[in-house]
Specification:
With about 325 residues, this protein is mostly beta strands. Helix content is about 0%, strand content about 45%. It has no helices and 29 strands. Strands 1, 3, 4, 5, 6, 7, 8, 9, 11 and 12 form a ten-stranded mixed sheet that branches.
């Protein structure tokens, strides 16, 4: 037979006031946890308390053997271990163990701890506390009753700003948002998680793959994270000219074949002019006699520009003229 808790009664002496608080404010659904509730007799109260009750919220289950309640030694009251009076079903009923000296004096706190399994439904639940002088003379509560929030919803973590993939920068800047006012932790690659705020920057990154992860845990212990992977490539491509005109040629046409050691676009230059987009093979016509110089430079897909490769040659397309000098007379 369950014990019916008395949750209301006659008022105690005028000025008998107490406050209530609890330490565990958020829990996951159907999770076992240890709760602590404190009932403090106001310093100005004229009476000592001798009994207390705590109503168990719907859906919560308290382990009866886990309930412990202690008071402080304040004034004429000794420190004492209050006893559980009756079965723990819909509530916890506590009494002082002996005479009035083991009661809760003004200014003292009754600390109750117990293990309970939370309800399965997400909601805010109230621990309905009451403090009594005797059987029915009830203290007035100053403030609100302690509550606990059952929360099984994971927070949402979203990465906003991030580097391009791939990237030719050794720096990486990230921003992120959280669906709740939580503290976040971040890590780079296989490093440890550390507290962080948005935005966050990393410098001096090595070439190769990298991973950024941001995680958050809400007050109930629900966790969530988001991550981003990218590759840093700062090595510039290298270009080589594989064929061109002979070092000395009588052709006013020059064709060059070139390639880079990774997929790239090219810009070519002739005789110190402007670098212009080009592809291999690149040809030039109508070249004048004299020395010429061809240059090409590569740029990879993420903007790394490599060193210039050059090729020099000379064009001589003018036929020589022959002049006869000393000669015999036409009739000799």
């Amino acid at each position: 037979i369950a014990c019916l808790l008395l949750v209301s009664g006659a008022a105690a002496a005028p000025g008998d006031i107490y406050t209530a608080a609890s330490s565990l404010s958020h829990v996951k659904p159907t999770t076992s946890a240890t709760y602590t509730i404190t009932l403090t007799n106001a310093a100005g109260s004229p009476s000592r308390a001798g009994r207390a009750t705590i109503g168990i919220p719907p859906g919560f289950s308290v382990q009866p053997t886990s309930v412990q309640a202690t008071t402080q030694a304040v004034g004429g009251c000794t420190a004492s271990l209050w006893v559980v009076d009756g079965p723990v079903s819909s509530g916890i009923n506590l009494r002082r163990p002996g005479n009035n000296d083991t009661g809760l004096c003004p200014g003292a706190t009754l600390t109750i701890s117990f293990t309970a399994t939370s309800a399965g439904d997400e909601a805010t639940y109230t621990w309905a506390t009451h403090l009594f002088v005797g059987e029915t003379e009830e203290f007035a509560l100053n403030g609100s009753q302690p509550t606990v929030v059952v929360d099984g919803t994971r927070p949402v973590v979203t990465i906003g700003q991030k580097p391009t993939n791939p990237s030719n920068s050794r720096s990486a800047n990230f921003s992120f948002t959280l669906s709740e006012l939580l503290g976040a932790t971040c890590k780079l690659d296989n490093g440890p998680f550390a507290p962080c705020t948005s935005p966050i920057a990393y410098e001096n990154l090595s070439d190769g793959p990298h991973t950024f992860t941001v995680a958050a845990t809400d007050a109930a212990g629900n966790t969530a994270q988001d991550g981003y992977a990218w590759t840093v490539e700062t090595r510039a491509p290298t270009v080589g000219v594989s064929s061109g005109p002979a070092p000395l040629t009588n052709s006013r046409l020059a064709t060059f074949v070139f390639s880079a050691d990774e997929p790239s676009s090219f810009h070519c230059q002739l005789n110190g002019g402007s670098f212009l987009p080009c592809t291999s093979p690149a040809s030039y016509q109508g070249l004048a006699d004299g020395p010429h110089a061809f240059s090409v430079r590569p740029t990879d897909a993420i903007g790394n520009t490599g060193p210039t490769a050059s090729y020099g040659w000379r064009v001589d397309a003018t036929a020589p003229e022959t002049t006869l000098g000393a000669r015999p007379r036409s009739r000799t």
